[in-house]
Each structure stands twice: as structure tokens, then as C-alpha cells.
Predict the 3D structure of the following.
Amino acid sequence: MKFLRRKGVRKILRNQRGAVAVEFVFLLPVMLLLTFGMIETVRYVQFNQKMDAGASQLVNLINQNLNLSLSDLNIIMDATTEIIKPFAGKNLTIIITAIQQNDPTIDSPADVMWQLGRNTDQNTSRVAPDGEGSKVKVPNLELKQRDQIIMVELFNEYTPIVNNKLTQGLIQKMSEVNYKRYMGRPRFGSFQFAPH
């Protein structure tokens, strides 16, 4: 009887059938977590690159022309939305601000000549929250008298693919409103338009 028991225990211990299935069950959640984590990381990096590209192209398109109409600016904002796709959702806010230095005194605030925005009911400008006619100090930039710059601000919310309890903290951090600010080069003289 003891001999059978020992032989049966040895046989069970030597039997490897099912070991692969057990290992697979333990590794599957880890592999899925790594896969979806990489997918979300790549998408978030792509989202930030598209926001940067959209802001810089918006400034570049405006700076190429001295005389733009309101409909031209709306077309340029539509182009920016196309650049940011597929991340340009209903929460995308675009704010364009023209800032001009009229005071010859060094370090004096500049004047907001005009401001145009799209979807501004959700977000307001961080550079010139009071809008047209206000005075602002342009960060990290020294303007000479009569210099004008175009400042673009983009607000957008990243929406992750995966949303569950495991990734809740990371997703909450990624879902916060993303803000991009881009300045054009200072140019002497003002633009020939003030959209209203």
C-alpha cells in the first residue's frame, strides 16, 4: 500500500501536463496590462505631438499673411482641427491673440490688439484672459515698440481607449485638459486686419 502511494505521488509530481496552461493564466494579465499600457503611452505621445503641430502651424499660417479676413482665420482654425485629428474632439478650444508693444518703456506690458477664439465657453486665455484692449506681460519675450506677435493657445482633453479600475489614476492624470501655447516671431508693425 505504501509503495502504491509513493509511486502515485511520484507520478503526479513528474506529470507536466497542464503546466503551460497554469503559466499562461498567470502571465496573461501581465501581458495584457503591458500591451494596453504601451498602446496608451504611444497614443498620448501622438496626442501631444499633434497638439504641438497644430499650434505651430496655426501661428505659421497666420504669420505668412498681413491681410487676413475673419473667414480666412476660420479656415485656418479648421485646418488646425484637421491637423489634430483624431484627437480634435468637442473639447478643443483655439484662442488666437494679437499682442503689440505700443509703449517704448522697457519691460512695460503690451496691448492686446484683438483676440479670436473657438469653443471658448469651456476655456479662457491664460495669456490675456481679459481679451481685446487689455494689457499683458508676454512671458519670456522682450518686445520693442511697434512689435507685434501672434500667440496661439490650444486646450484639448485626451480620451484614453482603456478605462478601468486598474488604470484609473493614470487615466485621470492623462484626461486632464492639455494646454499648448505657441508664439510667432515678433514682427514690426501690425497686421492689416482686426477680426470682429
Notes: Helices lie at 2-14, 19-63, 70-84, 168-174. Strands lie at 93-100, 110-118, 135-136, 147-157, 177-183, 187-188.
